[in-house]
């Protein structure tokens, strides 16, 4: 008789025991995590905890010195970022990284470039982005570099949505934003979750990240020190004290 493990679906993404070095400095030590299709997984931790390095490893921006990264059954560690994107991964990088001299509309179309032949679907997705972010609709012909930080974050999210990737990797979406923009960004992320979008989220704002997530991992000095469902971590006294402001 097959066991539950035999019949459960394989993860969309598996990070299996990766080490990452920057020269002589080791940033990750045997980090492992899994992301199933349709779920949101948050990676939490303070500065220099290794959470952004974990995301960069998935995106091909750094190469692990040990371990494997498997996307839908295919090993991707060490692949070029363009190859990872071609396999269906979209990215919302830390710091937004929009193209400042291009218009809002042009930045969004760059996200859709891998599916550029799907003109009708792209037009529909553009309307969806402009509905979700009315500020972008008002500024669609404006140079992206003239937008506020919050508006640029909206643009980065919209660009990733236009990619229609199987997995969206998001790095610190609340960093440097006012509470109003944080609420606007996470309102859209909650919509994506409800629509079944798979998300790997790196975030310092643990409270809102755990509200969004299904499962979460806590990194400290390059090690996974806690993992579990979001509900389990919210109830964990150590997490409450370190990340949720409990005394």
Automatic annotation (TrEMBL):
* Presence of the UniProt keyword Membrane in the record: yes
The molecular function terms in GO held by this entry are:
ATP binding
User: PROSITE patterns from the entry?
Assistant: ABC_TRANSPORTER_1 (PS00211), ABC_TRANSPORTER_2 (PS50893)
Alphabetized InterPro entries for the sequence: AAA+_ATPase, ABC_transporter-like_ATP-bd, ABC_transporter-like_CS, BCA_ABC_TP_C, BCAA_Transport_ATP-bd_LivF, P-loop_NTPase
Q: Where is the ABC transporter domain?
A: 13-246
Name the Pfam families for this protein. Answer: ABC_tran, BCA_ABC_TP_C
Q: Which domain of life is it from?
A: Bacteria
Kindly give the SMART domains that the UniProt entry links to this protein: AAA
Keyword vocabulary terms for this entry: Amino-acid transport, ATP-binding, Cell membrane, Membrane, Nucleotide-binding, Transport
In the record, the note on similarity to other proteins reads: Belongs to the ABC transporter superfamily.
Q: Which PANTHER family match?
A: HIGH-AFFINITY BRANCHED-CHAIN AMINO ACID TRANSPORT ATP-BINDING PROTEIN LIVF
Q: What is this protein called?
A: Branched-chain amino acid transport system ATP-binding protein
Q: What organism does the record attribute this protein to?
A: Ottowia thiooxydans
């Amino acid at each position: 008789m097959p066991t539950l493990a035999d019949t459960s679906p394989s993860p969309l993404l598996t990070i299996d025991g990766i080490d990452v070095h920057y020269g002589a400095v080791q940033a990750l030590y045997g980090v492992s995590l899994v992301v199933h299709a349709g779920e949101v997984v948050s990676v939490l931790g303070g500065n220099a905890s290794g959470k952004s390095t974990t995301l960069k490893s998935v995106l091909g921006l750094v190469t692990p010195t040990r371990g494997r990264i498997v996307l839908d059954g295919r090993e991707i560690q060490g692949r070029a970022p363009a190859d990872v994107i071609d396999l269906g991964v979209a990215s919302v990088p830390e710091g937004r990284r929009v193209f400042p001299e291009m218009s809002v509309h042009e930045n969004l179309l760059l996200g859709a470039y891998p599916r550029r032949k799907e003109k009708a679907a792209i037009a529909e997705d553009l309307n969806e982005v402009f509905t979700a972010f009315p500020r972008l609709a008002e500024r669609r012909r404006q140079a992206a570099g003239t937008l506020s930080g919050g508006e640029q974050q909206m643009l980065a999210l919209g660009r990733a949505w236009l990619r229609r990737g199987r997995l969206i990797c998001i790095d610190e979406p609340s960093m440097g934003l006012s509470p109003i923009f944080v609420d606007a960004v996470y309102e859209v992320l909650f919509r994506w979750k409800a629509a079944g979008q798979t998300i790997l989220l790196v975030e310092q704002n643990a409270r809102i990240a755990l509200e969004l997530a299904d499962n979460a991992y806590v990194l400290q000095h390059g090690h996974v020190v806690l993992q579990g469902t979001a509900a389990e971590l919210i109830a964990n006294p150590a997490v409450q004290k370190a990340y949720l402001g409990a005394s």
